[in-house]
Amino acid sequence: MSACLWPGKNQLMKEYHDNEWCVPSHDDSYIFEMLILEGAQSGLSWNIVLSKREDYQRAFHNFDITYCSMLSDEKLEGIKDQYNVIKHLSKLKAVRSNAKEVIKIQSEFGSFSNFLWRYVDFKPVINHWESDGDIPAQTTLSEQISKDLKQRNFKFVGPVIIYSFMQAIGMVDDHIRTCPHHFKNR
Question: Of 7, 19, 77, 87, nearest to 45 (Cα)?
Answer without folding.
Answer: 7
